[in-house]
Amino acid sequence: MATINNMSTRMCRDHRILSSSGNLSDVFVLESRFRKRCFFQNSKFSVRSMKANEQNQTRKLASSNGPLTASEKVSSPFELLTNIQTLGKENINPISRRKTKIVCTIGPSTSSREMIWKLAETGMNVARLNMSHGDHASHKKTIDLVKEYNAQSDDNVIAIMLDTKGPEVRSGDVPQPITLKEGQEFNFTIKRGVSTEDTVSVNYDDFINDVEAGDMLLVDGGMMSLSVKSKTKDAVKCVVVDGGELKSRRHLNVRGKSATLPSITDKDWEDIKFGVDNQVDFYAVSFVKDAKVVHELKDYLTSCNVDIHVIVKIESADSIPNLQSIISASDGAMVARGDLGAELPIEDVPLLQEDIIRRCHNMQKPVIVATNMLESMIDHPTPTRAEVSDIAIAVREGADAVMLSGETAHGKYPLKAVKVMHTVALRTESSLPFNTTAPTHNVYKSHMGEMFAFHATIMADTLNTPIIVFTRTGSMAILLSHYRPASTIFAFTNEERIKQRLALYQGAMPIYMQFSDDAEETFARALKLLLSKGLLMEGQNVTLVQSGAQPIWRRESTHHIQVRKVQA
């Protein structure tokens, strides 16, 4: 049994300050090669019986992310550098964990048991099921394999995200690709089954009503474009502006417009019920235009008595004026840049990405950045430098997760794509500054949990310790993730569903463990488990948080932040 040298901090809701026998110094400064931060003078909290030895106060921070397990050791040109190293040097210190999560789309390249296992071990945190492709039988196989992996793995967990097809407008089937040349006349018809050199079908009867002469029609996310010249009762006549090869079932967008189809189609409702029956963790809902759609889906899930979180995909022009209400109604958002860049000017997409990430962060909702992140790796074993920068920008802007689509669904190098995403995210995280932004509202009254998450983060970052939190609902782990502590959040839960859900949140490492009635026994078992897996080191300090919506071992009026020194 691990022995614990306890240094505790306690907060009582009635007093709103941490009781102590001594105050922290007015200003505590940590400096490293890449970051410098100062803590607030006259700190609102103090620590009882706390001593930080000289070694702990003066040593360089080895990394910002906690320890890296053996399976995560980095071996690529994007190796993680420590804070005291200079860019371009190869003095590697592999003791960091990636905090930004990776969503992988499962498809023909990765649907086997072997590949799902390899994706999980390489860095996948969430398995995405794209309901635009495949059938329920193939997706059920994937769900069963992910659940099998989760049941067998003690150190890792993979969440399952079902991504609805949504009201997509697509061209019909063609026997072979049709070559479109600049200046050529080409037509789209609502008649089914048409495929000639100059005309193909579309799958949407109101397509004629949704377009007007002068509109710009984009094919396959803008890979080809056609200008609408006129229309008849059953056809839209166009002239090719940017040519290419038109293949079967290509996505069609009208620049600046969204289709008048409902956000959740009949097929989507069938897929949603499939997700309920198979207990997925998240829905990613396509083409959400307003909050009403989110409320409708959540009401349905409540009626089914299931707890599945709703991630809204921001990808239509109509969603932009309603961003605040849509994200507020949801459990998180995805920046789906493909269709977003087709319906809106492409130069607006980076600004919208930053705006959506900021809004989600302010509302404490997870956010995923998706589409084209490593598109070239569908066919090539190495990424472009622009793609590497794209991942780094998403990480620096604060995304909880980055997503791979075709790269892992049907690409030639799915494992290499995941490894590149892992190493780039890890390297970028090592240079991020600490977050010392205080909560903007009055946390001392109605938001006790937020205050504790913020001050626990400050304490953990000051002492360079990981955070341990015990949670039944996931709420405190989510709050801690929001404040972006520099080290790992070890989130212990006795609920399998919560363990899987937390797999999406930045910095959180969810661990399933049954809680005993004795708090100290549970703490000791948790520390022993982390020591045995090499996630903690002998003599290391840890910050332990007891707070949140539902008390476990404490009275409802009492909250705790404790710093403990662990010995084997």
Index terms:
16 helices, disordered N terminus, alpha/beta, eight-stranded parallel beta barrel, seven-stranded mixed sheet, 22% strand, 568 residues, 29% helix
What's a concise summary of this model?
This protein has 568 residues and is α/β, with parallel strands linked by helices. It has 16 helices and 25 strands.
Describe this entry's structure for a reader.
The chain is an alpha/beta fold and 568 residues long. The protein is 29% helix and 22% strand. It contains 16 helices and 25 strands. The strands form five sheets. It has an eight-stranded parallel β-barrel, surrounded by eight helices. A seven-stranded mixed sheet has the order 2-1-25-24-21-22-23. The longest helix is centred in the N-terminal third of the chain and has 17 residues, at 136-152. It is elongated. The N and C termini lie close together (8 Å).
Topology diagram in text:
Blueprint lengths: L2 E10 L5 E2 L9 E3 L4 E3 L15 H5 L42 E5 L7 H10 L3 E5 L5 H17 L6 E5 L14 E3 L4 E5 L9 E3 L5 H4 L5 E4 L4 E8 L3 E8 L1 E3 L5 E3 L11 H12 L4 E4 L5 H13 L5 E6 L8 H7 L2 E5 H7 L5 H14 L4 E4 L14 H13 L3 E4 L1 H4 L4 H16 L18 H16 L3 E5 L3 H8 L6 E5 L2 H6 L6 E5 L6 H14 L8 E6 L11 E10 L1
Parallel strand pairs: 5-6, 5-20, 6-7, 7-16, 9-10, 16-17, 17-18, 18-19, 19-20, 21-22, 21-24, 22-23
Antiparallel strand pairs: 1-2, 1-25, 3-4, 8-14, 9-13, 11-12, 11-15, 12-13, 24-25
GO molecular function: ATP binding; kinase activity; magnesium ion binding; potassium ion binding; pyruvate kinase activity
Cofactor: Mg(2+); K(+)
Pathway: Carbohydrate degradation; glycolysis; pyruvate from D-glyceraldehyde 3-phosphate: step 5/5
